[in-house]
Each structure stands twice: as structure tokens, then as C-alpha cells.
Amino acid sequence: MTKAKNWSHAELCEIAVKWLRRPNSNNGHGCHVAVSEVRSGWTGEVPDAIGFRQAGYAPHDGSVVVEVKVSRSDFLADKKKPHRIEGGLGNWRYFMCPEGMIEPDELPDGWGLLWVNSRGHVKPKAGAAFALWQSSNYRSHQGALADFRQESDWNGEQFILVKLYARIGDPEAVNQKLREAWGEHARIAKRCNGMAEEISDLKRKLSQAKRDDAYGIGELSAGLDGLRKTAGDRKSPSRPLTARGGS
């Protein structure tokens, strides 16, 4: 029997961030941005992990919160938090805990559950992710995402995103560098396409030259064979034999 691992809060937060980035094809939410323990305001909620997805497709787009629990007492006390009562961050919400510590029937309405086993593997036990894991049917996925979607504290989420964006330095400088990089990418791609066409044209010419050479060698060989045959037909006539000593 595998011995249970005593996960720390920090370790599970790291696993939660990785899980938030997991693509839909692997039963995740495919978040483009995922971070741990960031404030949603000066006195607001501090989610253990939160991810954001914005791909232009409404059923999948939104925010996902994962609350990490490493003890039963912490889980039981969570329901008393003001943002749990008033509504908080996350269009989809999950508790993450060591395997078996929380059961699905103990969850608040609309919440999912993620168990982490001793090897660090995440197993969905409730919520939208559990429905994704149970079925590969596209319509079932859409229905599950819609069923578990909740209204989120958009002001708090906007606070997180703006603060994260501000930490990268001057956003406009980064924006300009990205534009330059894409411009250079387009230039190189155009040049590569041109070179590919040149290579293709050279290959055609080389193939044609080989065919022409083969045809020319064939004609030369046939001409030589003809000359040999002609030379054979024109052998010098034999001299008549004469008796020795004369007549």
C-alpha cells in the first residue's frame, strides 16, 4: 500500500497552478494565465491559485479558482469567510486537497473537488472537471461548464490582472518589442517561403537536366553502335590466293 504524502500548502498551490494550465483535452480549463496567492484588492480575497482563460469562445472563457486545503479544520473554517458568503472570485471553483481528505458530499453548492495522490497526480472528484473526465462528448463538456459556472467578483479579478500586468515593467515597451518581433517573424517567413520556391524550381531544373542528359547519352550510344555496325560491313576484301612459284 502506498504511504500517504503529507503535502504542504505551498506544494499543493504549485500543483494547482500547473493544473489550471492543463488543456481541455486533458480535462483541464486551459488557462492562459495562472498564478498563486495574489490579492484581489487591499482587503479582498487572496485565492490560493487562480487562472484566466480568454480564447474568444464564451463557454470556456472565464476565471477558475482553486482553494488548497491541507487539514480538515481549515476546510471547515473556510465556509465562514465573507467572500464565501457574499460570492467571490472564479467562474468555476474547486477545493484541492490530499486524496480522501474531503468528500464530494461536503462541498458547497457549485464547487468542484480535486484530489492529489501521493505521486502528485490530480484526480477530479466533483465539478466541471469531473464531468470532463467522465465523458469525451463535446456537448457534455459544454453542458458541464454551463452547469457549474458562477458569477464572479469581476472587480477583484480585474485588480489581479492589472497588478500582474504592471509587474512586467513598461507595458508599452513590451508591446513595441512584440510588434517588432512579429514583424521580423513575418519578414523571415516570407524569405523562407521564397527560398523554398527557389529550391523547388532548382530541383525541377535538375531533374529536367538529368532527363536531357540521359536522352543525349542514349542517342550517342545508338550512334556509336551504328558506326560499329557500318565499320563491320565495310571490311577489306580478301586478296586472291596465288600458287607459289607462279605458273
**Percent in strands:** 5-15%
Question: Segments where pLDDT lies below 50 for 5+ residues?
Answer: none
Roughly how many Å apart are the termini?
127 Å
| Helical segment count | 7
Return the average pLDDT rounded to an integer: 84
Please give a structural write-up.
By secondary structure, the chain is of the alpha/beta class. Helices cover 48% and strands 14% of the residues. The chain is built from seven helices and six strands, in the order H-E-E-E-H-H-E-E-E-H-H-H-H. Strand 2 (49-53) and strand 3 (62-68) form a beta hairpin. The chain starts with 8 loop residues before the first helix and ends in a 14-residue tail after the last helix.
Using brief descriptors, characterize the structure shown:
6-stranded mixed beta sheet, 7 helices, elongated, 48% helix, alpha/beta, 247 residues
Q: What's the structural blueprint in terms of helices and strands?
A:
Layout: H1 9-20, E1 33-36, E2 49-53, E3 62-68, H2 72-78, H3 82-86, E4 92-98, E5 111-116, E6 122-126, H4 128-134, H5 138-148, H6 154-166, H7 171-233
Parallel strand pairs: 3-4, 4-5
Antiparallel strand pairs: 1-2, 2-3, 5-6
Helix pairs in contact: 4-5
